[in-house]
Amino acid sequence: MHRTEHLLATALSPQTPSERKLNDLKEPILNAEPAVQRRLLDLQDLDLQLDQVAHKRKSLPEHQALTELLAEKSVVDGELVAADTEVGDLQREQKKADSDVDQVRQRKARNVQKIESGQITSPRDLENLQHEIGSLERRISNLEDAELEVMEKLEAAEVVQAELRTRAEAFAGRQGELESARDASLKELDEQRAGINDKRTELLAELPEPLVKQYQRLREHNGGIGAAPLVGKRCMGCRMELAPSDLNLIKAAAPDAVLRCEECGRILVRTPESAA
After folding, report:
1. Where do the C4-type zinc ribbon domain residues begin and end (predicted)?
2. Could you give the domains of the chain?
3. Residues in contact with 116: Cβ distance below 8 Å, sequence separation at least 6, in sequence order
4. pLDDT of 69-100, one tens digit each?
5. CA torsion through residues 57, 62, 64, 66, sign
6. Are 190 and 243 in contact (CB under 8 A)?
């Protein structure tokens, strides 16, 4: 069907089924008073406001900031777990090293006490005991070196642990701040959405159901725009300028005929700014 013939069918034959197909659905030709059609533009405006609120909810800067923060925090938390494990292992290792040194020292002290008390009378036993004391002293020295090495490792690990804990606490604090800011923004947007929905509900009660259903189907399949005004010679839905012949057909259409844009299929609402 030629575009002018199609527009004529849309504008002048409200009792004839529309031949235009949108997503395999045949849309009926509708009638509505001009004032009602213009109210459809108010509905479109409210729906766009709801879309904007939904977009703002998804694109809050806090969302991205939290995503980045939590990624960094996850790394630090993992490093902190590893640091805690290392500190715990070294603490147990130091405790064992301390215990080993104490045991050898106690054994040496007992041997020294035996010598000093005069309990050992045999020269051979005395020589053996003194030799053992020398061995114990060397053993103590080696154990103390190992003990010192563990202590130094533990101190270094505790420094790393403290730094990571400080960073983790800072991340947690920042996370709380961002979540509070996000929740405050979401609350404000939810209040805006509720107010818009209240207006939308009131407006829907004024509009005929068939017109609303057609508008909603068109809106779903046309990027959120189901109805658009004719401003001058241009459909503000697709921004295409209508041909003079199409404008003449629109001028000839009944005032209550619900028109559709030939280019985009959206409901085309005549306004005082229309050239037709």
Report:
1. 234-268
2. 3-32+208-274 (no CATH), 61-202 (1.10.287.1700)
3. none
4. 999 999 999 999 999 999 999 999 999 999 99
5. negative
6. no
